[in-house]
């Protein structure tokens, strides 16, 4: 089956999360993604996360973190610190449309693998660098990981309960949101650059993605609220500063998130709760008034919500088209009938880890659907195959490189 990017080859020098996440998305869309790793150790995430077990229940070398980010790729190991290894990578780059890397700013220039060096070999190359702070500016030399960008971008100042509440204070989002957000922006940039190359210029270009930039940009309307009003937003737990009621309510058996988006939904909601008079209360008549008077409104609603279980409230709210949903743990997420209907959990047969679970790509393309051709690779699984296929090396040449510890 032809896929959207089946004509594209990608050299993935990415490590850990942001770079590999970008490469996996391109692989899901059909690109031939060649992952370059260090001989012997590989990508750092091969040492992070839980060990996958094979069909007999024995632990394998494959980790959950690596399996999450590297589906669909071919693994090649190359010693980048050696001149011979650098030459192998240059030759591979000459055969590729896209290169992805997330080394520190300037690191690859030491090896002659920076954009200007590779552009001279392959002018059509789209070269995407993902770093913590970008290629320029006073912080560009700094390393960084997701929590740093969650904190510096303002995200942690928005996340968590108010200081005055028990457990109040800044909180980290529960996954590496900065890495994945930067990866999504990188994918957009790569696709835009490929389109420009093929439709306009005939040449590739350089893409500079910073996790810091990407995380600030993704705060979106909350940042704009501040820029327009000059008011620094405060932490509100699950609530919203501009919409109300728009938060989690405690029910008799857990928590239900309710997102009342307009005045008519509010009228239906309070009717269901047996509090119809609140819809005409001048404090709560309009959304902006409800947002201003949350401290008076929420306790009135909460006193009723806690009297019944989640399922009962959800059934009746669904019937009234009032948006709501339970706060699921991950076991509940993957049991959800909607998620199952959408085939968001699938399995692939891995050469050492057996039948491994994978979270499916959420893109649903009608003409070129996502297909899954390869499970995440074992370390160096495709070295011989790629060097033979793309660089024309015979078995003797490959053996010589291996004996020199170049691959």
Automatic annotation (TrEMBL):
Q: Would the keyword Endoplasmic reticulum turn up in this protein's UniProt record?
A: no
Does the keyword Transferase feature in the UniProt annotation?
yes
Q: What InterPro entries is this protein classified in?
A: CoA-transferase_III_domain (IPR050483), CoA-Trfase_fam_III (IPR003673), CoA-Trfase_III_dom3_sf (IPR044855), CoA-Trfase_III_dom_1_sf (IPR023606)
- Report residue spans for region: Disordered: 41-62
Pfam families found in the cross-reference section: CoA_transf_3
A GO molecular function for this record?
CoA-transferase activity
Keywords, sorted A to Z: Transferase
Q: Which domain of life is it from?
A: Bacteria
Q: Where is the composition biased (Basic and acidic residues)?
A: 41-56
Q: PANTHER family given for it?
A: SUCCINATE--HYDROXYMETHYLGLUTARATE COA-TRANSFERASE
Q: What is this protein called?
A: CoA transferase
**Whose protein is this, by species?**
Advenella kashmirensis W13003
- Native organism taxonomy: Bacteria, Pseudomonadati, Pseudomonadota, Betaproteobacteria, Burkholderiales
